[in-house]
Specification:
Number of strands: 7
Order of helices and strands: EHEHEHEHHEHEHHHE
CATH superfamily of the largest domain: NAD(P)-binding Rossmann-like Domain
Structural class: alpha/beta
CATH topology of the largest domain: Rossmann fold
Number of helices: 9
Number of domains: 2
Distance between the termini: 27 Å
Strand content: 5-15%
Largest sheet: 7 strands, parallel
Mean pLDDT: 95
Strand order of the largest sheet: 3-2-1-4-5-6-7
CATH class of the largest domain: Alpha Beta
Oligomer: single chain
């Protein structure tokens, strides 16, 4: 299937590894012009060099002025942004009994504020052109909170609420807004979570991973390329009637429709 995004300008946040990298590579393979972003400038440039049309930018999304730098770089290299993939690392693990008000402020600052700023910078142009794709790489926690990831649950749910509301407001303008919810995809983040569980429980990481995989109907963790393919479709021309929704890529792990 031709996804109809060849020549489109795509910004993929936190795309130097993991889920963001998977999405960026899938978009690049479909002919999109991709801006790879992340804190590791050399890694961003290395990934960009492997794609047909891409450039890399070393940037920390949480720094003041970072959203503007990202959009300006993409526009200068390829033209106005057509596709925005929101992504970023999650806050530290912790139970609901452990979080503080300061922790919650940091979670919102990391998972909501810069994302809203990025959207505000590209949205008017998308609406004027009558075409745009905004996709947030979120978490299944927006449907089923994860017990030891309270701060992530809070921040991602807040972003989901904003994006769902936004989707309705711009639906008639040719701009879609969706969330893609990963389950257990093999990334550095899931490895870190598994490691933390292993330390807390006195088990090995292999034991923790095996137990987690056994609880997934497919019996395994997902791959970033599988995830990236779903992301690319949601950013495609063919997905023009899909908006305001959360799509799970979790191997059937969440026990609800």
């Amino acid at each position: 299937m031709d996804l109809g995004i060849a020549g489109r300008t795509a910004v993929v946040c936190a795309s130097t590894s993991g889920l963001g990298e998977g999405a960026a590579r899938a978009l690049g393979a479909e002919g999109a012009n991709v801006l790879i972003t992340g804190r590791r400038a050399e890694r961003a440039k290395a990934i960009a060099a492997e794609l047909p049309s891409a450039t890399g930018l070393g940037v920390d999304l949480l720094h003041l002025g970072a959203p503007e730098q990202i959009v300006d770089t993409a526009t200068a290299a390829f033209g106005p942004v057509d596709i925005l993939v929101l992504n970023g690392p999650g806050p530290k693990p912790g139970t609901a009994l452990e979080v503080t008000t300061e922790d919650i402020d940091k979670a919102v600052a990391a998972l909501v504020r810069p994302q809203q700023k990025l959207v505000s910078l590209v949205l008017d142009g998308m609406r004027e052109r009558g075409w745009g794709r905004i996709l947030a790489i979120a978490s299944t926690s927006v449907i089923q909170p994860i017990p030891n990831l309270t701060l992530s649950n809070i921040g991602r749910a807040a972003l989901a609420g904003y994006l769902k509301t936004l989707a309705t407001a711009v639906a008639a303008d040719g701009v879609t807004v969706n969330l893609l919810l990963p389950g257990r995809i093999r990334t550095a983040r899931t490895t870190a979570v598994d490691s933390a569980v292993a330390q807390e429980t006195g088990r090995t990481e292999d034991e923790v991973r095996a137990e987690a995989a056994a609880a997934i109907p497919m019996g395994r963790y997902g791959d970033i390329n599988e995830f990236g393919a779903v992301a690319a479709f949601l950013c495609s021309a063919q997905a023009s009637y899909v908006t305001g929704t959360a799509v799970r890529c979790d191997g059937g792990n969440v026990g609800s429709l």
